[in-house]
Design a protein that fits this description.
Length: 388
């Protein structure tokens, strides 16, 4: 399938001879005109290519709102608590989060400053529409990049952000580590192997995937390391809450994943043809949370906890017996549908177990966060081998 981006890709490849898969993925997702995330089209929900937890039900944002209010309290209830959401998408999370705060915690809402970061102007324009419909247009400040922020006290929050950063792809071939490149043959894009383009890639593999077997493939997300360092530089005091699918390195780079985790999503259908329809489909890879923990420590962030989405949301919902699940006006059918959607959020073989929650912090002395109540045994000790 020929897409608007494909001609631009062929021009780049013909001039360079070949490009790394990381550069190819960056163009597919972030080309200023034709990139998947830059065109402003629907990406999530029924009309998009995949569902996020925020699309599923407002209880996701409401429970995280409870964690946010507790974070504010742990910081000593400062007069301004800045909540920064990167990758705000359709704005559903922001609207549900702010509605819960104003209804349930007006004291927290009075201190809350909400910032949404969306790099694409069309996406920011689209985001203003649901905010305006919900009456929150003036409660959310829209920014294009992290660089637009000054150091703050609060929390940096992301849900399914890091998995969309461009990744390098490596293969163990003939006993040597090689990198995947993209080249053009006639009118088709093809993969080929070449030398490692950046010494940091080899160092990353040696640290986190040194047992990569012959013929096996793995992804290296250097952009995630740069991102967490950029976030740390903007956090004066507070927390970083990262939710995404992935795992710690020792459970991510394993023999049962010889092809790695790189996938494409289009029309709610996952597939492995990552060279088809460039710019028209999402490209994604599982997150190496060990690398985020290590890079965060190097940037001055303390590791506070790591758990599954199931355990995180269960811990937040238990104190009120999930009172945030249903509105009082909902009938029996609405309540049943809400319970079924909550089950999808918590189901361990599905979203509940696939999605992980990492909390890091700066300038917070031994915080006790409810969301980490059941985090024991979820990988705290296992991060140690990756810090050598």
């Amino acid at each position: 399938m020929c897409t608007p981006l494909q001609a631009a890709l062929f021009d780049v490849i013909r001039q360079a001879g070949r490009i790394t898969f990381r550069d190819y993925m960056a163009l597919c997702l972030y080309h200023p005109e034709h990139g998947y995330y830059m065109r402003g089209q629907e990406r999530t929900g029924v009309a998009g290519d995949y569902f996020t937890s925020a699309d599923l039900h407002p209880v996701f944002a409401r429970l995280i709102g409870r964690q946010a209010a507790e974070m504010w309290e742990q910081l000593g209830r400062p007069p301004t608590f800045t909540w920064v959401e990167q990758g705000a998408g359709r704005g559903l999370f922001a609207c549900d989060f702010l509605a819960w705060a104003e209804r349930q915690r007006p004291d927290f809402a009075a201190a809350l400053q909400y910032v949404a970061i969306e790099p694409a102007a069309p996406a920011r324009k689209r985001l203003r529409q649901p905010l305006a419909r919900s009456g929150f247009e003036h409660r959310v400040r829209l920014e294009g990049t992290l660089a637009d922020l000054t150091p703050l006290a609060g929390c940096f929050f992301s849900n399914e952000l890091v998995d969309a950063f461009p990744v390098a792809v490596v293969v163990r071939d003939g006993g040597r580590l090689k990198e995947v490149y993209v080249t053009a043959e006639g009118k088709a894009l093809r993969k080929t192997l070449g030398p490692i383009s950046d010494p940091r890639i080899a160092a990353y593999v040696a640290r986190y995937a040194k047992n990569l077997e012959e013929g096996a493939q793995a992804e290296v997300n250097l952009a995630a390391l740069d991102w967490i360092q950029a976030v740390a530089a903007k956090l004066h005091r507070g927390f970083v809450l990262t939710i995404d699918y992935g795992d710690l390195a020792e459970r991510l780079y394993t023999r049962d994943r010889p092809a790695g985790t790189l996938m494409a999503y289009r029309g709610h259908t996952p597939h492995e043809d990552v060279l088809s329809a460039p710019g028209e489909q999402d490209l994604t890879a599982h997150v190496n949370f060990s690398a985020l923990i290590d890079a965060g420590r190097q940037a001055g962030l303390d590791f506070l906890g790591f758990t599954t989405q199931e355990r995180f949301l269960m811990a937040l919902g238990e104190p009120t017996q999930f009172a945030d699940l249903c509105e009082s006006t909902e009938g029996a059918l609405g309540q049943l549908q809400a319970r079924l959607k909550l089950k999808r959020l918590l189901y361990p073989p599905g979203m509940g177990g696939t999605f992980k929650v990492l909390i890091q912090g700066r300038g917070v002395s031994s915080p006790r966060l409810t969301g980490l109540k059941y985090a024991h045994g979820q990988g705290v000790a296992e991060t140690a081998p990756c810090r050598t």
